[in-house]
Fold:
Amino acid sequence: MKIANASRKKIEGVLKKMFRQNYSWQKRGDFCFVHLDKVSDEEKERRVCEFKADRFFDPRCPHCKPFLTDGAFMVFDGPEVFGLRIMADGLFETVFPVPRQAAASN
Structure:
């Protein structure tokens, strides 16, 4: 699903199937930011404004490229965040961040 072209109704339908009613969300450009935790509107805005796609997804990684070109659902749950991409066949894939220190040592 290309997030930028998805309607509000389509996004809401996908989110209801995945998370039931315990979430809030906002769409900005190619990304849909989903908040599973109960945080203030200011914290939600901070998360969206500080999100840098090319820092979360490695542009050199072939697995990450579709997340950068098609966009993704960025799911926040407390300190945890992951990227979720839904493909045309209904399957999905996720990306979890690797701490920079761990990535550098591999």
Observations:
- The longest helix spans residues 8-19.
- The two ends are 32 Å apart (CA to CA).
- Residues 3-95 form one domain.
